[in-house]
């Protein structure tokens, strides 16, 4: 150990790179609070624990089985450390040393020195009393939330719509998202023995989907009178998140239950055709027309520069009327790509009222047509 160094460990380059790649997605690159762009590095026992946060969400992962660890806790610029480590040689270990007021990173003849901050002021999300736990099988979280995540609102004035509604009635789990132009609802039959509802921020949802791929997941509910925090464990990775305060709309009230017409399509064929014709739809409205005449479905899009696109698909039935319904074609693609069913059903009454899309009973989508 070098003079003035009071903690020095050797870790694998690929393992450290993988962990930092996940952690920097939580950090805030441009923030007036330095800690929000930092990674907390905790040397303890036989491990190096790394944590990042944006004050609403935190992510923790660890390098285990490390020798020669002397307890210490610092915080250092997460993005700079990641950019350095991922460019180091992959066939030798990376030495991390705390020397004076710097974290020194060494590999072969390469050396970097990064100033660190005292981690005692690093913001950690407190865990209130645990009020419940749900265990998810491999990919259940990823599959469930992938079906609805795209429908969350991006408008800052509608904070309660900037996340995914998460509910359990004890027998099944329901998730929902809406931006008022479209609604996505998915269910998972799972006995939890818990009754609760909350709104999970979209950023947290995206991290959940990414981290849960191929893994079993433990989800812990924290709070007092109601759920105010969630913690999720993905193997050795821990995610802690605050929740969105507010009341989610009564989405069940806007789901139509009776329809005049119903058509079933090959999901992949319809998605491919919509994507192709949508190439000439207006940049602002992204409008596309679905026209039905006899046993033909026509997809049309045009632009102010006189660009035009059309494609027709064969239908298995004749609904007995001609109709044209205009949609934002991106909304349709989001739905079709979120499903994995071979076929998708479209149910509607007329050209101006809600249209329902469904692959099976586990998910449904309601889209408002565009006015033309």
TrEMBL record:
Native species: Ehrlichia sennetsu (strain ATCC VR-367 / Miyayama)
PANTHER family: BETA SLIDING CLAMP, DNA POLYMERASE III SUBUNIT BETA
Keywords assigned: Cytoplasm, DNA replication, DNA-binding, DNA-directed DNA polymerase, Nucleotidyltransferase, Transferase
Listed GO biological process terms: DNA strand elongation involved in DNA replication
Entry's family note: Belongs to the beta sliding clamp family.
Domain DNA polymerase III beta sliding clamp C-terminal: 254-370
Subunit comment: Forms a ring-shaped head-to-tail homodimer around DNA.
Protein name: Beta sliding clamp
Domain DNA polymerase III beta sliding clamp N-terminal: 9-125
Compartments reported by the entry: Cytoplasm
GO cellular component, one term: cytoplasm
Pfam families xrefs: DNA_pol3_beta (PF00712), DNA_pol3_beta_2 (PF02767), DNA_pol3_beta_3 (PF02768)
Function according to Swiss-Prot or TrEMBL: Confers DNA tethering and processivity to DNA polymerases and other proteins. Acts as a clamp, forming a ring around DNA (a reaction catalyzed by the clamp-loading complex) which diffuses in an ATP-independent manner freely and bidirectionally along dsDNA. Initially characterized for its ability to contact the catalytic subunit of DNA polymerase III (Pol III), a complex, multichain enzyme responsible for most of the replicative synthesis in bacteria; Pol III exhibits 3'-5' exonuclease proofreading activity.
One Gene Ontology MF term: DNA-directed DNA polymerase activity
Every DNA polymerase III beta sliding clamp central domain range: 138-250
